[in-house]
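Limitations

Structures in this collection are predictions, not experimental determinations, and the ligand pose is part of the prediction. Treat each record accordingly. The example that follows, with pyridoxal-5'-phosphate as the small molecule, is included so readers can see exactly what is and is not provided: the inputs are given verbatim, and the output is the predicted complex.
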Amino acid sequence: MFDINGNDNNTYNIDNIEFIKRTSPKVGELIEKEYLRQKNNVELIASENYCSEAVLAACGSCLSWKYAEGYPDVRTSGNTSRYYGGTEFVDILEEYACDAWRKVFDTDYHVNVQPHSGSQANFAGYKAILNPGDTILSLTLDNGGHLTHGSSVNFSGKLYNMVFYDVDERGYIDMNDVRQKAQEYKPKLIMTGASAYSRIIDFEAFAEIAKEVGAYFMVDMAHIAGLIAGGQHPSPFGLADIITTTTHKTLRGPRGGMIFCRPELAKKVDSAVFPYAQGGPLEHVIAGKAVCAEEAMQPEYKEYIKQVVKNCKALSDEFINLGYKVVTGGTDNHLILLDLSDEPFSGRVLQERCDKIGITLNKNCVPCEKRTPKETSGVRIGTAPMTTRGYKEDDFIKVVHRIDALIKELREEFK
Ligand code: PLP
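Predicted complex:
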């Protein structure tokens, strides 16, 4: 993993690149270029992270060779319910991964570690409890939600009847609006979770509203799962019926998804993942997820995630000290949204200018967005990857000053 100066203390990537080059110089060269980009750039993308060499090695292991459609079920039925032979070791592995994740979140919920991605976890979560045309109350993309939370270009917006709650004038989720829309539309599902929301989500209040209107309650904790695991954000376990996540963001695991549910929904959730949405599980990635779970239970991980939040607060405070607008006026988690609505240039322009000096971040819509999704009036900045590399508050303050200098240049250019 890279340290603060971009040094890799382990040769895993370098050795593998040389190995790949022997078969495919082109692929090896491209991986090498990407490796150097990741090592030399300041990575501020809120949904990214650097996972450990152990996770990478599990994902690159012989488990990639194995087909294992179905589920282990060894402990519940005494028999595997896979559709292939030779699954005796992946059966143990998958059950081990499930147990480890239940320990991470201190829960007795059922867990399915097979979803290939966060989007597929959401697809399966909806399928488990809804029929096409059912109503979902959710947060829009503009206000911080994810594409799979009802965007018209996504399966969610096409298959289901989406209605949306808003954020208030400060940018906080408006719980009065959630209650009012829930009572008005009587959704079958109330959904929360976000890709670009910097405040604590009040899961208790959501659960109470869902109960009042007889709706299912689902949480997509993809961004904040690491904070929940590390005790830096309240947990949705015990409150939500279904909880989905990715494993590659703040959890610092392999690229993939997972889905948790109340035990009574287990059968429906499992059959929504396989055979409905997917075929063979990626047992190599499931091994990576199991290693990630073990890492997330270590005291070092808890320290790491605490530092992610402290760093983000320092970054946010510095932007505010310099006179910038940060959506909601700050942050409680691992990301901020810098509001560029009053600037003469867009989020895209700032993203591209940052790219030129090796700072990687992404343009993002802000609440009440006036520019197009391709331009946007904001950028999203996250502290999880650079905290993995050892950045502390002072390092992030230096990053703020570098971005501030770029913004000042752009103001002159766009005068
Ligand atoms: N849910 C949320 C809240 C996300 O932010 C994302 C991705 O950024 C996803 C789901 C989808 O994850 P994936 O890219 O693995 O499909």
